[in-house]
Structures are given as structure tokens and as C-alpha cells.
Design goal:
β4, α4 and β5 form a beta-alpha-beta unit. The chain has a single domain, classed as Glycerol-3-phosphate (1)-acyltransferase (3-Layer(aba) Sandwich), CATH 3.40.1130. The termini are close together. The protein has a six-stranded mixed β-sheet, with helices on both faces. With about 300 residues, the chain is α/β, with parallel strands linked by helices. Helix content is about 50%, strand content about 15%. Keywords: Acyltransferase, Transferase.
Length: about 300
Amino acid sequence: MLSQRKKPSLLQKLTRGLAVGSVITGNTVAHGVPILTLGLTKLFKQSPKVDETNVNLANNWISVNNWVIDRVLADTRWDIQIDPELELKQDGRYIMSCNHQSWVDTTVNQYVGRSRMPLTRFFTKWELIFIPVAGQAFKILGFPMMKRHTKSQIAKNPELKHQDIVEARKSCEQLLSQPFTLLNFIEGTRFTPEKHKQQKSPYQHLLRPKAGGLALALSILGHQVDALVDMTIVYPDGIPGYGEFWLGEVPRVVVHLRKIEIPAWIFEGNYEEDREFRAKFCQWLSQRWQEKDALIADIKAQYQS
């Protein structure tokens, strides 16, 4: 049953927004600037100790944000469901897939993962590097950053087609020296009814999955990961905006985590060069996406009954 709550007054929203905004901004500066400073030292000398310190700073950064969620946004109810077959640990190595609906999804992932898994990096757009402090920190912390090229750009310079793959491969390989969680929003963009209609998506609650990023991650890291984790995020009261979340206007967040078995044949193929393997991989991923779509439908029905 969806909860009915009294809406806060404008003054209450402004007060909460100012308080939360101040803490989040201060937290970003307090942790982001040291990460940038230490990151610059790597221009002269690579140091595992610097990498470890930066990861600890990033985890503290997330912990402060999570404290705000628990204390200031205490009205938001969290329903976190973890499949019994999935064993998570802070020193593990995980590849994670997730549906994508809002900028809030990254915050939800960090909230759920902070006490259960290693620091989560995710495939992100290169343009995010221009976000002050946070964008540069993403790069230093080893987030795979992808440049999107149009078909006309690739036609003029075919090398662009492989440039992202080379950069992503390099980022993935660098993760192997430490525990990690590598997140892939497989839809490649946030879900909206307009995009769903435009794609003619065969799924009720999801866009069509883009298999390339996951296939690349599995080909590089698959033999050395503890699990392929599938995270499903559902907002029973409607998909929120980022501001709505930090204003405490999201009544409920549901998160489901399950383990997906990786078939042995996935480690033996070449997604980029083998058309038959690519078709087989896409079919396998489509089946997982059908399961995810059914799970979302079940969760929505549960909270609307």
C-alpha cells in the first residue's frame, strides 16, 4: 500500500534543501579536493598507496552522504532484498548490471553498496569529467569514461569506433589490482516513456539492453570476478528527480540484488569480431532482461495492492 504523507511547506522544503545542499557541497569539496590533489601525484609516479588512500576517501565521501540519507531523509523507507545465493563482501570483485531511471540511481547504488561491496565504479559519459571536482574525481578513481561518436564521425574516422573499447579495456584492467564493483547501466540511458515508445521496446518497464559494455567487462574481468550481480531499482511512488530525493520527497525505494550465473561459453567468444557469438550473447542478455522486467512488474504489483 502506497504511503500517504503530509506534504512539507515551502519553508520546510527550502530549509531542508539549504541544509542538505550545504552538507553535500561541503562533503564534495572536503573529499574531492584531496582526491584530485593525490591524483596529480600519479602524473610523476604510480603508487598503490595513493590509490588505496583515494578509495578510502571516496568511501568516506559516500558514508557522509549515506549519513544524510539515514538522518535527514529518514522518512524515505528502504526495502533492500538480497537473494540468499548472493554472498557479498567488502574485498570482493563484482560486475554489476542495473536498470536506469534517474540520477538518483547512482546514489541508491552507493547507499546499498557502501557497507556490502567494494567502491562502485560505473561506465559513464566522458562529458561528466567537466563537472567540477566530482567529474575529475571519477577519472582519478578509475571510472571507465566513454566518448559517444556519431555515425558520421565514425564514417570520417573509422578509428573512433575502437577508441572507446581501448580506453574501457585499459580502465577495466587497472581495476584488477584491487577489490572492485564495476557497474553497467545496460540500457545506456535513463528510462522515459518517450524513449520506451521510440525504441519499441519489447519490455514493459525497461529499454532495450546494450550488450557491448557488459560483454567487454566480462571478457576482461569475468574469470576473476566473484559474481555477476544484477541490481533492480524500483520507485513504487514514481520515478524521482535528483532534487526530489535530497528534499526527502521519495517515500520508498525498493532494491533487489541477485546473482546471475555466467555461462562458460561467454569467456570463450569475441563480441566485437564474432557475429555468431554476438547474437548468442545478445539473446542470453535478452533472457536476463525478460526476468528483470517480470521482477519489476511483481515489485510494482506488491506495493500497489
